UniProtKB/TrEMBL annotation:
SUPFAM superfamilies, A to Z: Phosphoglycerate mutase-like
Region (Disordered): 19-41
Taxonomic path: Bacteria, Bacillati, Actinomycetota, Actinomycetes, Streptosporangiales
GO molecular function, one term: hydrolase activity
Keyword Transcription: no
Name of this chain's protein: Phosphohistidine phosphatase
InterPro entries, per the entry: His_Pase_superF_clade-1 (IPR013078), His_PPase_superfam (IPR029033)
Length: 157
């Protein structure tokens, strides 16, 4: 069986701007800082994504750009407002050559995805800028669970 790594990253803190569409909300200054910190932590763990799937919103794209400078980021429209099962379907469609996949999305979908895959109870939540690293056995197409090997939140670090 081949081990794979899934990293689930929630976008960093976004501004609430009256009159601005939800998809257009930018990161706050704190959010930009936290996105960089998340990326430094991911990199420091030796995790190098082969594929980055990202929601089309401004805040998720900017989080991905700051956390993973130079990475090939694939904007996947289905990630925006997706539920856990929809995110799992997208992940299962990933190329078998991809060993490490990083998904950048939104709550509640990303938090529920982590809970569903790791079978962990609600836990401490999934605040903006948080990520979880999950070790997965087998092919993406067969993904139904994994083992959490790391969790990071800007609130805790």
């Amino acid at each position: 069986m081949t081990a794979r790594t899934l990293v689930v990253l929630r976008h960093a803190a976004a501004a609430q701007v009256p009159g601005l569409a939800d998809r257009e909300r930018p990161l706050t200054g704190e959010g930009e800082r936290d996105a960089r910190r998340a990326g430094e932590t991911i990199s420091g763990m030796g995790v190098r994504p082969d594929l980055v799937l990202c929601s089309p919103s401004v805040r998720t794209r900017r989080t991905a750009e700051l956390a993973l400078p130079g990475a090939d980021i694939v904007v996947e429209h289905a990630v925006y407002e997706a539920y856990s099962d929809e995110l799992l379907t997208l992940i299962r469609r990933s190329d078998p050559q991809v060993r490490t996949l990083l998904l950048v999305g939104h709550n509640p979908g990303v938090h529920q995805l982590v809970r569903d895959l790791t079978q962990e109870p609600g836990g401490p939540g999934f605040p903006p800028g948080s990520f979880t690293v999950i070790e997965v056995a087998g092919e993406w197409a067969e993904l139904d669970g994994g083992r959490r090997v790391a969790r990071w939140s800007p609130e805790e670090h």
